[in-house]
Amino acid sequence: MDTRSVIEEGEALTLITWGAMVYPSLEAASRFPGQVEVIDLRTIVPWDQRTILASVAKTGRGLVVHEEPLTAGFGAEILATLAEKAFKDLDAPLRRLTVPDSPIPYNAGMMKYVLPNTDSILRTITELLAF
């Protein structure tokens, strides 16, 4: 079963995402042509460690973007695996861009405030590429 999809090729940073965060991640990555590899994880059980490890070995950087809280979100599992199995490949710190550790508001305007968005993804990509 194909559990992942490399939906944008890049050489300088691996951005791992899934669900609703795929679209703002692709939009942000489009501002860095050829630099950001975007992986749509598609499933988290099972998740495709091999593709992610190969991508981070190629790019030297890893960013996980998801709409779960920072603490105990699945992004932490991905980054723990990268820290354990790809540490020597890294050129920059691993990063997560998530919802802060707070309840998700029901108000649509407030929800947009706490969720990662194209601008916050752009800022994080820029920081990691400059490292």
The helical percent reads: 25-40%
How many domains make up the 3D coordinates? 1
Poorly predicted regions: none
- The chain-level structural class is alpha/beta
Count of β-strands: 5
Radius of gyration, CA atoms, in whole angstroms: 14 Å
Tell me the name of the CATH class. Answer: Alpha Beta
Spatial sequence of strands, sheet with the most strands = 1-3-2-4-5
Mean pLDDT, to the nearest integer, reads: 94
CATH architecture grouping: 3-Layer(aba) Sandwich
Q: Please, how many helices?
A: 5
Shape: globular
The helix-strand sequence is EEHEHEHEHH
Q: Can I get a quick summary?
A:
With 131 residues, the chain is of the alpha/beta class.
Features of this protein?
alpha/beta; about 40% helix; globular; Rossmann fold; 5 helices; about 130 residues; five-stranded mixed sheet; about 20% strand
Describe the structure.
By secondary structure, this protein is α/β, with parallel strands linked by helices. Helices cover 39% and strands 21% of the residues. The protein has helices spanning 22-29, 49-59, 74-85, 108-114, 118-130, and strands spanning 5-8, 13-17, 36-40, 62-69, 95-99. Helix 1 (22-29) links the parallel strand 2 (13-17) and strand 3 (36-40). The radius of gyration is 14 Å and the shape is globular. The relative contact order is 0.20.
